[in-house]
Write a structure and sequence with these properties.
This protein is an alpha/beta fold. The chain has a single domain, classed as Dihydrofolate Reductase, subunit A (3-Layer(aba) Sandwich), CATH 3.40.430.10. Helices cover 28% and strands 28% of the residues. The chain has helices spanning 34-46, 49-54, 65-76, 84-91, 130-141, 152-160, and strands spanning 4-11, 15-18, 77-83, 103-107, 115-116, 122-126, 145-150, 166-172, 179-181, 194-200, 205-210. The strands form two sheets. Strands 5-6-4-3-7-1-8-11-10 form a nine-stranded mixed β-sheet, with helices on both faces. A two-stranded antiparallel ribbon has the order 2-9. The longest helix is centred in the first third of the chain and has 13 residues, at 34-46. The structure holds NADP nicotinamide-adenine-dinucleotide phosphate. Residues 8-9, 16-17, 21, 41, 82-86, 89, 107-110, 129-130, 149-154, 157, 180 line the site of NADP nicotinamide-adenine-dinucleotide phosphate.
Length: 212
């Protein structure tokens, strides 16, 4: 059965992105120190061998249980869904071969033709809401799973729809003090999860929650 899962990095104080990390300040990582804060959040991931390979950073990188977990995560994804703000930042920074290698459905109000990248990533722009994007992602994913990639706005909508089967959080020991909060705008009663797995890493604790 195809699963819908969230897989993100989170600061200790619950932020998905630091204040100042917007397209407007993309060329100024010193603005409110967003570049260093983001680097601290993602340090665990960038150092994994499988991620270095995906981002074409060259050989090397950590191997071990966290690297194996990241590799399995990539292997299980048949389609990604993301919000327009995450997409726009990626458009400005991903390599030509965007690191998804699946169809990606972008929630947006802006109509746009599909954007095909080398290496199997095609971005489809969906103007008919999160349920339609999920329908399209299910068709595209086949027997594989669907990742809600972010950002906060997109994830909150899928949590509110009750569509998220698994929540995977890499909790990094960094404090942002402000930014894009993950857990807000949730309707009551909120989604229910139980702890499925905790994996210690050197730069993040990897938490996995599933439906009870
Ligand atoms: N820590 C992590 O692991 C992680 C993962 C992913 C992203 N992020 C970060 O999260 C931040 C972005 O998150 P965010 O919450 O600001 O934005 P987001 O969820 O990426 O995108 C929100 C935008 O998507 C469009 N949208 C969302 N729902 C829609 C709907 N139902 N119908 C039509 N359009 C819809 C709207 O844009 P339009 O109205 O302009 O179309 C909306 O402003 C970025 O800084 C990103 O780097 C962090």
């Amino acid at each position: 059965m195809t699963k819908v899962f969230v897989n993100i990095g989170l600061s200790l104080d619950g932020y998905l992105a630091p204040e100042g990390m917007t397209l407007e300040h993309w060329a100024e990582p010193g603005y409110k120190d967003w570049g260093a804060k983001w680097g601290g959040l993602m340090a665990w991931l960038i150092s994994q061998q499988v991620m270095r390979e995906k981002l074409k950073f060259g050989p090397g990188g950590e191997t071990g249980p966290v690297n194996d977990m990241v590799r399995r995560t990539f292997e299980r994804i048949g389609a990604n869904i993301m919000g327009k703000r995450m997409f726009e930042q990626g458009e400005a920074s991903w390599p030509e071969e965007a690191p998804f290698h699946t169809p990606v459905f972008v929630l947006t109000h802006e109509p746009r033709d599909p954007w095909v990248r080398p290496g199997g990533t095609t971005f489809h722009f969906v103007n008919d809401g999160p349920e339609r994007a999920l329908e399209l992602a299910r068709e595209a994913a086949g027997t594989r799973d669907i990742r809600i990639a972010g950002g906060a706005d997109a994830i909150q909508q899928y949590l509110n729809l009750g569509a998220v089967d698994e929540l995977e959080i890499a909790l990094a020991p960094v404090l942002f003090g402000g930014g894009r909060r993950l857990f807000e705008h949730l309707s009551e009663p909120g989604p229910q999860f139980r702890i499925d797995r905790v994996l210690d890493g050197t730069a993040a604790t990897h938490l996995r929650y599933v439906r009870p």
